[in-house]
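I would like you to sit down with the record closing this message with an eye to the fold:
=====
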Amino acid sequence: MPEKIYKILTIILLVLISLVCIIMFFFYRKNRLQNSRENARLKVYMSTETIDNSLDEKSVENGLVAQEIPEIPVINKTERMIKLETLQAENSDIVGWLEIPDTNISYPVLQGQDNSYYMTHNYKKQYSSEGSLFLDKNYDWNIPSSNLLIYGHNNRGTNEMFCGLLDYKKENFYNCHKIIRFTTKDEDCNYEILSVFLSKVYYKSDKNVFRYYYFVNANSKDEFDDYVTNCKKASLYDTGITAEFGEQLMTLSTCDFYTKDGRLVVVAKKK
């Protein structure tokens, strides 16, 4: 092949690669912007004090068409519980709404058939680079299990999902944000933080390490106590809070790049 033709083909190839990269970049940016707008809209909807089962016209255009709530007794149901049922009518994988007051963390929590789908999909089951907050697939609502193990991305670029959890590395932040609110169709309750610690995803060959991400249900009091003890031992500071066997726990987990495969973990108990 003549050298001139080779150079021309090389230039064409580089231009095509550049065009593909530009298109992918704009698609990525557009996707993040759309999801950020949708998350903001949902937060407003869930935080509105007055129950309104019909979302605004723009909400309908965005695909979240409100469902009529059956005429059933709503005694002891908070406004947020009723609104959550509206969201669940669109996607039954929505199991709750998690909020840490006075932070950016306020999102639906989903539970899929595996622990990977909602890493890359939003509550509408659309592709999302932001992903969703999702509950470990092994949590059994029929028991219920001992520990609500909830994962979320650390989206530093947009401060979405569990990015805000990293603020808990500072004790002063914890002192002002000790409570996590979690709402399901059956209850609207608070969880009190008992531990904040750094961890990582360990290799199978690693011995004598605390794999917090394996704990969903305690088969015994010893197993529950061992989990709480390890959480307290690893905590960055003393919260003065602990938990006893039979109490409901919640564990929030996100990436922390302080080390390879690092994680920031926040553990709380139901009040």
Observations:
- The CA atoms of residues 193 and 248 lie 12 Å apart.
- Strands lie at 94-99, 106-110, 133-135, 147-151, 154-155, 160-161, 179-183, 188-200, 249-255, 262-270.
- The chain has five helices and ten strands.
